[in-house]
Design goal:
The structure is a single chain. The protein is built from four helices and four strands; from the N terminus they run ααβαβαββ. The protein is of the alpha/beta class and 117 residues long. Helix 3 runs parallel beside helix 4 (82-97). The radius of gyration is 18 Å and the shape is globular.
């Protein structure tokens, strides 16, 4: 009996499991995760497009109204071609109006989100 208790396999927790997403399944799951965010959202993305900002802006607005700190690390719009630069600058302005912190990292290509650490 003691042997079974010592070597009992723990139940998997969300930290020990993972899922793979594709371009269709990622954003619905991500939006669900954003809705659960309580303290801080950190996003690293080299590109901020008008289309993506339109999709994420309502969630960002809800988060900032709840006092969630948002930090976005992206490329400086000057690093993009003229069309993408204008689009990124507009999107960055929108997120900054909500009170998000926007950081610029030169020539990075990381894409990640950290929710509540």
């Amino acid at each position: 009996m003691i042997f079974k208790k010592l070597f009992k396999r723990p139940d998997p927790t969300p930290l020990l499991t993972s899922k793979l997403y594709d371009e269709r399944s990622f954003y619905p799951a991500f939006m669900n995760d954003l809705a659960k965010c309580k303290r801080e959202l950190i996003i690293e993305s080299p590109f901020i497009t008008h289309k993506r900002m339109n999709a994420l802006y309502p969630s960002f607005r809800r988060l900032t109204k709840r006092g969630v700190r948002i930090v976005i690390n992206t490329r400086d719009p000057k690093e993009h071609d003229w069309r993408m630069a204008a689009e990124a600058a507009t999107a960055i302005g929108l997120i900054q109006e909500l009170g998000a912190v926007v950081l610029f990292t030169g020539n990075h290509h990381r894409k990640l989100a950290i929710i509540d650490g």
